[in-house]
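#onboarding

Welcome to the new folks! Below is a worked example of what a typical request in this channel looks like: someone posts a single protein sequence, and someone else replies with the predicted structure as tokens. Don't worry about understanding the tokens yet, we'll cover that in week two.

Example request:
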Amino acid sequence: MADKVRNDAVEALEGLLFDGMTIMAGGFGLCGIPENLIAAIRRSGVKDLTVVSNNCGVDDFGLGVLLAGGQIRKMISSYVGENKLFAELYLSGKLELEFNPQGTLAERIRAGGAGIPAFYTKTGVGTLVAEGKDVREFDGELYVMERGLTADLSIVKAWKGDREGNLVYRMTARNFNPMMATAGKATVAEVEKLVETGTLDPDHVHTPGVFVDRIVEGLHEKRIEQRTVRQREEA
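Example response:
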């Protein structure tokens, strides 16, 4: 079996990037984002990207750095409210946006990874979400058809991974990452801790290594997207 471990994020993405490609990027806010792989994509200069991600980071971190570099042509997302540059680019017509209800986005990705080309959901019926889409009645209720999503490349972030690509996520980072790992033609994972094969309890593995093509260990900044603290009581 070929060794999946790479020395750094640049090496992990070697030969996988090209202009006009579709990339899925895991994460929820700034939690569980593959920040080292995103930085390597930024340095590569690849452009005209379609990026599937719940959100687009913030202005100077996460996927926001790809926006700043003018590398993203289209976003398929659920929430983009933390990024001022995103709003500016979209309102000026320089960025395409395909909005999805969050659960619908998650299911579109899961369906793509499972080989399901489309499915019907009640979410969005009678709203702008359903415009131009097939709407059918089942058992007296209306449902809108949504297409499954796949990508040329999925980049995901996990807490632990072994040399065969088995992954364990931690807390909120177990969000879009597991389903995205199944939906890419190629999947590259970055982990906080790389362990030897056989170390992970098989019953604790969230993404089996069969879905992961390359894996890299990296350092992670772990920023807080919105810091909220309790007000101090007056003396």
